[in-house]
Design goal:
Blueprint: E1 2-3, H1 18-37, H2 50-56, H3 61-82, H4 88-132, E2 139-140, E3 143-150, E4 161-167, E5 171-179, H5 183-200, H6 207-219, E6 240-248, E7 253-259, E8 265-268, E9 271-274, E10 297-300, E11 306-310, H7 312-315, H8 327-332, H9 339-353, E12 363-370
Parallel strand pairs: 1-3
Antiparallel strand pairs: 2-3, 3-12, 4-5, 5-6, 6-7, 7-10, 8-9, 8-11, 11-12
Length: 374
Protein backbone atom coordinates (compact mmCIF):
# COMPACT_ATOMS: atom_id res chain seq x y z
CA UNK A 1 0.00 0.00 0.00
CA UNK A 2 1.18 3.51 -0.76
CA UNK A 3 0.65 6.03 2.02
CA UNK A 4 0.35 9.74 1.36
CA UNK A 5 0.80 12.58 3.82
CA UNK A 6 -2.48 13.07 5.61
CA UNK A 7 -4.27 16.23 4.55
CA UNK A 8 -7.90 16.91 5.44
CA UNK A 9 -10.43 17.93 2.87
CA UNK A 10 -10.59 21.70 2.67
CA UNK A 11 -13.81 23.69 2.80
CA UNK A 12 -14.66 25.94 -0.10
CA UNK A 13 -12.79 29.24 0.14
CA UNK A 14 -14.99 31.92 1.68
CA UNK A 15 -17.68 29.40 2.68
CA UNK A 16 -19.20 30.61 5.98
CA UNK A 17 -19.35 28.27 8.92
CA UNK A 18 -23.02 28.47 9.74
CA UNK A 19 -22.87 27.65 13.47
CA UNK A 20 -20.33 30.42 13.97
CA UNK A 21 -22.51 33.01 12.24
CA UNK A 22 -24.88 32.90 15.21
CA UNK A 23 -22.17 34.43 17.41
CA UNK A 24 -21.84 37.91 15.79
CA UNK A 25 -25.60 38.27 15.35
CA UNK A 26 -26.21 37.24 18.97
CA UNK A 27 -23.57 39.75 20.04
CA UNK A 28 -25.25 42.54 18.06
CA UNK A 29 -28.64 41.71 19.54
CA UNK A 30 -27.32 41.52 23.10
CA UNK A 31 -25.35 44.77 22.91
CA UNK A 32 -28.28 46.60 21.29
CA UNK A 33 -30.79 45.50 23.93
CA UNK A 34 -28.50 46.21 26.89
CA UNK A 35 -27.40 49.57 25.45
CA UNK A 36 -31.03 50.69 25.03
CA UNK A 37 -31.89 49.70 28.58
CA UNK A 38 -28.66 51.02 30.16
CA UNK A 39 -28.50 54.28 32.17
CA UNK A 40 -27.88 57.47 30.14
CA UNK A 41 -24.21 57.66 31.09
CA UNK A 42 -23.46 54.06 29.99
CA UNK A 43 -22.66 53.42 26.32
CA UNK A 44 -22.04 49.90 25.03
CA UNK A 45 -22.01 50.78 21.33
CA UNK A 46 -18.21 50.35 20.95
CA UNK A 47 -18.65 46.63 21.66
CA UNK A 48 -20.49 46.27 18.32
CA UNK A 49 -17.16 46.43 16.47
CA UNK A 50 -16.48 42.91 17.75
CA UNK A 51 -19.23 41.49 15.51
CA UNK A 52 -17.65 42.23 12.08
CA UNK A 53 -14.17 41.58 13.50
CA UNK A 54 -15.20 38.08 14.59
CA UNK A 55 -16.92 37.41 11.27
CA UNK A 56 -13.78 38.33 9.31
CA UNK A 57 -11.89 35.52 11.04
CA UNK A 58 -14.01 32.75 9.51
CA UNK A 59 -16.25 34.17 6.75
CA UNK A 60 -15.74 35.89 3.42
CA UNK A 61 -15.88 39.61 2.65
CA UNK A 62 -19.56 39.61 1.69
CA UNK A 63 -20.73 38.11 4.96
CA UNK A 64 -18.31 40.33 6.92
CA UNK A 65 -19.64 43.43 5.16
CA UNK A 66 -23.23 42.31 5.82
CA UNK A 67 -22.56 41.81 9.54
CA UNK A 68 -20.84 45.20 9.64
CA UNK A 69 -23.91 46.81 8.02
CA UNK A 70 -26.19 45.12 10.57
CA UNK A 71 -23.96 46.39 13.40
CA UNK A 72 -24.11 49.94 12.00
CA UNK A 73 -27.90 49.70 11.69
CA UNK A 74 -28.06 48.51 15.30
CA UNK A 75 -25.91 51.44 16.43
CA UNK A 76 -28.17 53.89 14.56
CA UNK A 77 -31.22 52.27 16.22
CA UNK A 78 -29.66 52.71 19.66
CA UNK A 79 -28.88 56.35 18.89
CA UNK A 80 -32.44 57.10 17.76
CA UNK A 81 -34.02 55.35 20.75
CA UNK A 82 -31.73 56.90 23.36
CA UNK A 83 -31.23 60.43 21.99
CA UNK A 84 -30.86 61.20 18.29
CA UNK A 85 -28.73 59.93 15.42
CA UNK A 86 -27.04 63.35 15.24
CA UNK A 87 -25.91 63.24 18.85
CA UNK A 88 -22.14 63.88 18.87
CA UNK A 89 -21.26 60.79 20.92
CA UNK A 90 -23.37 58.43 18.81
CA UNK A 91 -22.23 60.08 15.59
CA UNK A 92 -18.59 59.32 16.36
CA UNK A 93 -19.51 55.78 17.39
CA UNK A 94 -21.33 55.23 14.09
CA UNK A 95 -18.45 56.68 12.03
CA UNK A 96 -15.90 54.54 13.89
CA UNK A 97 -18.04 51.41 13.39
CA UNK A 98 -18.37 52.12 9.65
CA UNK A 99 -14.60 52.58 9.25
CA UNK A 100 -13.76 49.45 11.23
CA UNK A 101 -16.33 47.41 9.28
CA UNK A 102 -14.74 48.53 6.01
CA UNK A 103 -11.27 47.65 7.33
CA UNK A 104 -12.19 44.13 8.48
CA UNK A 105 -14.10 43.51 5.24
CA UNK A 106 -10.92 44.33 3.34
CA UNK A 107 -9.03 41.97 5.66
CA UNK A 108 -11.55 39.20 4.92
CA UNK A 109 -11.05 39.80 1.19
CA UNK A 110 -7.25 39.52 1.49
CA UNK A 111 -7.58 36.35 3.57
CA UNK A 112 -9.90 34.83 0.95
CA UNK A 113 -7.39 35.61 -1.80
CA UNK A 114 -4.62 33.98 0.28
CA UNK A 115 -6.75 30.88 0.86
CA UNK A 116 -7.37 30.57 -2.87
CA UNK A 117 -3.64 30.74 -3.50
CA UNK A 118 -2.99 28.02 -0.90
CA UNK A 119 -5.67 25.84 -2.46
CA UNK A 120 -4.03 26.20 -5.86
CA UNK A 121 -0.63 25.35 -4.38
CA UNK A 122 -2.07 22.23 -2.75
CA UNK A 123 -3.58 21.18 -6.05
CA UNK A 124 -0.28 21.67 -7.87
CA UNK A 125 1.60 19.76 -5.16
CA UNK A 126 -0.84 16.84 -5.29
CA UNK A 127 -0.66 16.73 -9.09
CA UNK A 128 3.15 16.83 -8.96
CA UNK A 129 3.16 14.02 -6.42
CA UNK A 130 1.01 11.79 -8.61
CA UNK A 131 3.25 12.41 -11.63
CA UNK A 132 6.69 12.35 -9.99
CA UNK A 133 6.23 9.99 -7.05
CA UNK A 134 3.87 7.36 -8.38
CA UNK A 135 2.29 4.95 -5.91
CA UNK A 136 4.00 1.58 -5.62
CA UNK A 137 2.06 -1.57 -6.38
CA UNK A 138 1.12 -3.66 -3.36
CA UNK A 139 2.49 -6.82 -4.97
CA UNK A 140 5.32 -7.29 -7.46
CA UNK A 141 6.20 -10.91 -8.18
CA UNK A 142 7.13 -12.66 -4.93
CA UNK A 143 7.28 -9.33 -3.07
CA UNK A 144 4.81 -7.32 -1.02
CA UNK A 145 5.54 -3.60 -0.84
CA UNK A 146 4.45 -0.52 1.08
CA UNK A 147 5.73 3.04 1.00
CA UNK A 148 5.23 6.32 2.82
CA UNK A 149 6.30 9.91 2.21
CA UNK A 150 6.22 12.45 5.05
CA UNK A 151 6.79 16.05 3.95
CA UNK A 152 8.50 18.38 6.41
CA UNK A 153 6.61 21.45 5.13
CA UNK A 154 2.97 21.63 6.15
CA UNK A 155 1.77 22.74 2.71
CA UNK A 156 4.05 20.48 0.73
CA UNK A 157 3.17 17.04 -0.56
CA UNK A 158 6.49 16.17 -2.13
CA UNK A 159 10.12 17.28 -1.91
CA UNK A 160 13.53 15.86 -2.75
CA UNK A 161 13.08 12.33 -1.42
CA UNK A 162 12.25 9.68 -3.99
CA UNK A 163 11.44 6.01 -4.48
CA UNK A 164 10.31 3.80 -7.33
CA UNK A 165 10.03 0.13 -8.27
CA UNK A 166 9.74 -1.65 -11.60
CA UNK A 167 9.49 -5.21 -12.82
CA UNK A 168 12.10 -6.82 -15.06
CA UNK A 169 12.01 -10.19 -16.84
CA UNK A 170 13.93 -11.72 -13.93
CA UNK A 171 12.79 -9.82 -10.85
CA UNK A 172 12.14 -6.43 -9.30
CA UNK A 173 14.34 -3.35 -9.16
CA UNK A 174 13.91 -0.55 -6.66
CA UNK A 175 15.47 2.80 -5.87
CA UNK A 176 15.23 5.05 -2.86
CA UNK A 177 17.09 8.34 -2.84
CA UNK A 178 17.44 11.81 -1.41
CA UNK A 179 18.23 14.87 -3.51
CA UNK A 180 20.40 17.53 -1.93
CA UNK A 181 18.42 20.69 -1.28
CA UNK A 182 14.74 21.57 -0.95
CA UNK A 183 11.99 23.30 -2.84
CA UNK A 184 11.05 23.12 -6.49
CA UNK A 185 14.65 22.56 -7.61
CA UNK A 186 14.84 19.43 -5.46
CA UNK A 187 11.53 18.23 -6.92
CA UNK A 188 12.95 18.72 -10.42
CA UNK A 189 16.12 16.79 -9.58
CA UNK A 190 14.04 13.98 -8.05
CA UNK A 191 11.94 13.83 -11.21
CA UNK A 192 15.14 13.61 -13.28
CA UNK A 193 16.45 10.61 -11.30
CA UNK A 194 13.08 8.86 -11.24
CA UNK A 195 12.59 9.39 -14.97
CA UNK A 196 16.00 7.92 -15.73
CA UNK A 197 15.34 4.93 -13.45
CA UNK A 198 11.95 4.18 -14.98
CA UNK A 199 13.37 4.48 -18.49
CA UNK A 200 16.31 2.12 -17.94
CA UNK A 201 15.52 -0.20 -15.02
CA UNK A 202 13.79 -2.81 -17.18
CA UNK A 203 16.26 -2.47 -20.07
CA UNK A 204 19.75 -2.55 -18.57
CA UNK A 205 21.04 -6.10 -18.15
CA UNK A 206 22.89 -5.61 -14.87
CA UNK A 207 22.77 -3.30 -11.85
CA UNK A 208 26.12 -1.52 -12.41
CA UNK A 209 25.05 -0.50 -15.93
CA UNK A 210 21.76 0.84 -14.56
CA UNK A 211 23.48 2.91 -11.88
CA UNK A 212 25.98 4.20 -14.44
CA UNK A 213 23.00 5.32 -16.54
CA UNK A 214 21.54 7.17 -13.53
CA UNK A 215 24.91 8.80 -12.87
CA UNK A 216 25.12 9.94 -16.50
CA UNK A 217 21.62 11.45 -16.27
CA UNK A 218 22.46 13.42 -13.13
CA UNK A 219 25.91 14.45 -14.36
CA UNK A 220 24.45 15.70 -17.65
CA UNK A 221 22.47 18.33 -15.72
CA UNK A 222 24.75 19.45 -12.86
CA UNK A 223 22.82 22.67 -12.31
CA UNK A 224 19.58 20.83 -11.67
CA UNK A 225 16.58 20.80 -13.94
CA UNK A 226 16.29 24.58 -14.24
CA UNK A 227 17.82 24.88 -17.70
CA UNK A 228 20.24 27.61 -16.66
CA UNK A 229 22.96 28.46 -19.14
CA UNK A 230 25.47 29.59 -16.54
CA UNK A 231 27.42 26.87 -14.73
CA UNK A 232 26.86 26.44 -11.03
CA UNK A 233 29.24 28.19 -8.66
CA UNK A 234 29.95 24.83 -7.08
CA UNK A 235 29.39 21.94 -9.50
CA UNK A 236 29.47 19.54 -6.56
CA UNK A 237 26.31 21.08 -5.10
CA UNK A 238 23.92 18.95 -7.17
CA UNK A 239 23.93 15.32 -6.09
CA UNK A 240 21.60 12.55 -5.00
CA UNK A 241 22.22 9.79 -2.51
CA UNK A 242 20.59 6.55 -3.59
CA UNK A 243 20.27 2.87 -2.84
CA UNK A 244 19.50 0.74 -5.91
CA UNK A 245 18.36 -2.84 -5.42
CA UNK A 246 17.85 -5.82 -7.70
CA UNK A 247 15.73 -8.63 -6.22
CA UNK A 248 15.59 -11.75 -8.43
CA UNK A 249 12.41 -13.79 -8.36
CA UNK A 250 14.12 -17.20 -8.16
CA UNK A 251 17.22 -16.40 -6.13
CA UNK A 252 16.98 -15.84 -2.39
CA UNK A 253 19.23 -12.80 -2.58
CA UNK A 254 19.14 -9.06 -3.00
CA UNK A 255 21.85 -7.19 -4.90
CA UNK A 256 22.56 -3.68 -3.67
CA UNK A 257 24.55 -0.69 -4.86
CA UNK A 258 24.72 2.14 -2.35
CA UNK A 259 25.58 5.61 -3.62
CA UNK A 260 26.23 7.40 -0.35
CA UNK A 261 22.83 6.40 1.03
CA UNK A 262 22.01 5.08 4.55
CA UNK A 263 22.10 1.26 4.58
CA UNK A 264 18.81 -0.63 4.21
CA UNK A 265 17.69 -2.66 7.19
CA UNK A 266 16.96 -6.38 6.95
CA UNK A 267 14.34 -7.57 9.46
CA UNK A 268 14.63 -11.28 10.09
CA UNK A 269 13.30 -13.26 13.03
CA UNK A 270 13.21 -10.30 15.40
CA UNK A 271 16.68 -9.13 14.41
CA UNK A 272 17.55 -5.95 12.50
CA UNK A 273 20.59 -6.27 10.26
CA UNK A 274 22.01 -3.22 8.44
CA UNK A 275 22.94 -4.08 4.86
CA UNK A 276 26.30 -2.33 4.84
CA UNK A 277 28.14 -2.65 1.53
CA UNK A 278 31.91 -3.05 1.59
CA UNK A 279 32.55 -0.57 -1.22
CA UNK A 280 29.91 2.17 -1.36
CA UNK A 281 29.93 4.51 -4.35
CA UNK A 282 29.76 8.30 -4.07
CA UNK A 283 26.35 9.97 -4.46
CA UNK A 284 24.99 10.29 -7.98
CA UNK A 285 26.44 13.40 -9.57
CA UNK A 286 29.76 13.12 -7.74
CA UNK A 287 31.23 9.92 -9.13
CA UNK A 288 32.96 11.85 -11.92
CA UNK A 289 35.21 13.31 -9.23
CA UNK A 290 36.16 9.88 -7.85
CA UNK A 291 37.70 6.99 -9.74
CA UNK A 292 35.29 4.29 -8.63
CA UNK A 293 33.03 1.67 -10.11
CA UNK A 294 29.60 0.44 -9.19
CA UNK A 295 30.08 -2.93 -7.54
CA UNK A 296 26.90 -4.63 -6.35
CA UNK A 297 26.96 -6.64 -3.16
CA UNK A 298 24.64 -9.58 -2.53
CA UNK A 299 22.79 -10.33 0.70
CA UNK A 300 20.51 -13.19 1.65
CA UNK A 301 16.81 -12.34 1.29
CA UNK A 302 14.54 -15.27 2.12
CA UNK A 303 10.77 -15.75 2.38
CA UNK A 304 9.50 -13.98 5.52
CA UNK A 305 12.33 -11.45 5.48
CA UNK A 306 11.62 -7.73 5.31
CA UNK A 307 13.85 -5.00 3.87
CA UNK A 308 13.30 -1.41 5.01
CA UNK A 309 14.55 1.40 2.77
CA UNK A 310 14.53 4.95 4.12
CA UNK A 311 15.96 8.42 3.67
CA UNK A 312 18.02 10.39 6.16
CA UNK A 313 14.97 12.44 7.18
CA UNK A 314 13.98 9.40 9.25
CA UNK A 315 17.22 8.78 11.13
CA UNK A 316 17.99 12.49 11.53
CA UNK A 317 14.66 13.32 13.18
CA UNK A 318 15.33 14.65 16.69
CA UNK A 319 13.22 14.72 19.81
CA UNK A 320 12.93 17.69 22.18
CA UNK A 321 16.30 16.80 23.74
CA UNK A 322 18.08 16.54 20.39
CA UNK A 323 18.28 12.74 20.30
CA UNK A 324 18.19 11.17 16.84
CA UNK A 325 15.41 8.73 16.02
CA UNK A 326 16.68 5.18 16.77
CA UNK A 327 15.29 3.49 13.67
CA UNK A 328 16.90 0.03 14.11
CA UNK A 329 15.68 -0.26 17.70
CA UNK A 330 12.16 0.90 16.84
CA UNK A 331 11.99 -1.38 13.79
CA UNK A 332 12.91 -4.29 16.05
CA UNK A 333 9.72 -3.61 18.05
CA UNK A 334 7.58 -4.25 14.99
CA UNK A 335 5.11 -7.06 15.78
CA UNK A 336 5.51 -8.65 12.33
CA UNK A 337 2.34 -8.30 10.27
CA UNK A 338 3.44 -7.25 6.78
CA UNK A 339 5.07 -4.17 5.26
CA UNK A 340 2.00 -1.97 5.61
CA UNK A 341 1.83 -2.61 9.36
CA UNK A 342 5.55 -1.94 9.68
CA UNK A 343 5.28 1.50 8.09
CA UNK A 344 2.20 2.41 10.13
CA UNK A 345 4.11 1.46 13.26
CA UNK A 346 7.19 3.47 12.29
CA UNK A 347 5.27 6.55 11.11
CA UNK A 348 3.29 6.78 14.33
CA UNK A 349 6.43 6.33 16.39
CA UNK A 350 8.49 8.76 14.29
CA UNK A 351 5.94 11.58 14.55
CA UNK A 352 5.60 10.95 18.29
CA UNK A 353 9.40 11.21 18.58
CA UNK A 354 9.49 14.59 16.79
CA UNK A 355 8.42 17.71 18.73
CA UNK A 356 4.89 18.65 17.78
CA UNK A 357 4.79 15.81 15.28
CA UNK A 358 6.74 17.95 12.82
CA UNK A 359 9.81 16.66 10.98
CA UNK A 360 12.83 18.80 10.24
CA UNK A 361 13.32 17.19 6.83
CA UNK A 362 11.28 15.19 4.35
CA UNK A 363 11.23 11.46 5.11
CA UNK A 364 10.43 8.47 2.93
CA UNK A 365 10.31 4.76 3.68
CA UNK A 366 9.72 1.64 1.59
CA UNK A 367 9.14 -1.80 3.09
CA UNK A 368 9.65 -4.95 0.98
CA UNK A 369 8.68 -8.44 2.14
CA UNK A 370 9.51 -11.64 0.28
CA UNK A 371 6.48 -13.87 0.68
CA UNK A 372 7.38 -16.73 -1.69
CA UNK A 373 10.48 -18.19 -3.21
CA UNK A 374 9.36 -17.56 -6.79
Amino acid sequence: MDHRPPHPSHRQVGEPRLPLLAVPFALIAAVTVVDVLAPPDVHLGPFLVAAPALTASFAGPRMTGFVGAVAVAAQVTVAVVRTTATDLNHTFQIIALVLISIFVTLFAHLREVHEKQLTQLRSVAEAAQEVVLRPLRDRMGPLRLASVYLAAEAEAQIGGDLYAATRTPHGTRLIVGDVRGKGLEAVGDAALVLGAFRAAAHQEADLPTLVAYLEAAVAADPDGADGADEPADDPGEAFTTAAVLDIPDREMTVRLISCGHPPPLLLRGGRVIPLEVDHPAPPLGLTRYVDTGFAPQSFSFEPGDMILLYTDGVIEARDAEGTFYPLPERAADWPGDGPDALLRHLCTDLLAHSPGGSLGDDAAMVAIERVTGA
